[in-house]
Amino acid sequence: MLLGLTAAFVGASGQTASALSNILSFGAPEPFSFDLLKQKARALADAPWHDPKSPHGEILQEIDYDAFQKIIFRRDASLFADSADAPPIQLFHLGRFFQEPCSIAVVENGTARQIQYRKSYFDMPEDHVARGLPEDIGFAGFRVMAPSQKTDWLAFLGAAYFRSSGALDQYGLSARAVAIDTALPTPEEFPRFVGFWMEPNGSPDKIIIYCLMDGPSIAGAFRMDCVKSAGVVMDIEACLYPRKPIQRLGIAPLTSMFWYGENNRRQAVEWRPEIHDSDGLAIWTGAGERIWRPIGNPPRVMTNSFQDNNPRGFGLLQRDRAFDHYQDDGVFYDRRPSVWVEPKGDWGAGSVQLVEIPTDDEIHDNIVAYWVPAEPAVPGKEINLSYWLHWEADEPFPAPLGRVVDTFSGIGGIAGQPRPKGVTKFVIDFEGGDLESYKRGEIEAVVTISRGELGLVDAYPLANNRKRVRAFFNVKAEGDEPVDMRLFLRGKDGRALSETWLYQYFPSQM
């Protein structure tokens, strides 16, 4: 374990050895284990819920975005700043948008000590409003830094959200502990992490994070074994304790943003060609089917469920990595991470749900994907699930099949001929697998639609790019109800040559 930490835990002065920090102050030692944390979560669920907002809301309300940016955590105060066995960890201050304090502690050899808040950990102007706050008010969250402390690769801030910069060093979509009643007529609930415990794991690229979650409907304990290599992988064990019946419990939820892309160019009102954190939902079903569902920006809130049993994985991915497709040199949408959920063990029956919410700007997270178990979440029934979260540039387990690389839509018919009214053409490009070995006439596009008229179905290798196969078809449909569509490529021997493309089309948007 961590050399020198035992000495750091000795003494009542609140100061520690440099392996932890020369500046941070710590509380008295207490026993700690994941079993004890689960007992604490279970006890929370058995008791009434209490609103966790800080009693110093009037001062925190004055710490708006600009004021929050002026509160800078000191690098020399970072937890594990001088350790070779853990990454440096910086702490976030409370503010207008983060008024619910959390506790943060350090674990070593079954003992934990809580970090005590001090204004001296932060650099801020002499007249800053935060200087009027009392001592030991808690923290808003933390971020895990590279050894140089010039960049970070994992951050926990707000509710039960967390993010990683992944393989391409760019933050994008977020993960959550759970999703409660997302996209239902009743208000969505946002449980929050109320406590964290950090345990070194022998490397500046590894850290174990324990989290205590609480909310009006549920409490929970999480153990996250986090490793940074080419990307970031989190081995997560979740133990959930419903406080009351939950109508829709989302497991391993991912939250992203999609405004417009190549598949809905009519909504591209801004100068940049595409704006999205993720461009599709990928699913690897328990039966082995690979599904790609491009994300859309629908005219109303849409929830789609993909029934499954013991799923092998799902994720929100950013497949399009071409800078020219975004032209954004500020937030770099081409570098946003893809996140893949890999279940451990059998998750049983349930469904992957995709929620798409209309948006007219990039500032709103409007996409959510999660797993909903078939078994209801009720008080007294403990829910235990484990999974890996992969923050990568691409899905970690690609199929040996052709995969979708582009989805286009536009007016239907044939170029150079009169266009039929009310007809839309869809064009889907595939690459990979053994598609490159097929000639024209040897590949069939298999298409089904839920309503409307289908026509001009075909698929063929592109003349100027033998690695790519293009499939297309026309659809004529009217009204506001969506048209659900399904397509995959099949060889003449009946073998599937590609993943399955799913799409939801709204004729009114065309």
Secondary-structure arrangement, i.e. CATH architecture of the domain at 141-187 and 243-398: Distorted Sandwich
**Looking at CATH, which topology of the domain at 141-187 and 243-398 would you report?**
Beta-galactosidase, Chain A, domain 5
Fraction in helix? under 10%
**Class derived from helix and strand content:** mainly beta
Count of individual beta strands = 34
User: Would you identify the regions where 5 or more consecutive residues have pLDDT less than 50?
Assistant: 1-18
Which CATH class of the domain at 141-187 and 243-398 is shown? Answer: Mainly Beta
Helical segment count: 4
Beta percentage is 35-45%
Distance between the termini: 61 Å
Mean pLDDT: 93
Largest sheet: 16 strands, mixed
Give the overall silhouette. elongated
Give the C-alpha Rg.
25 Å
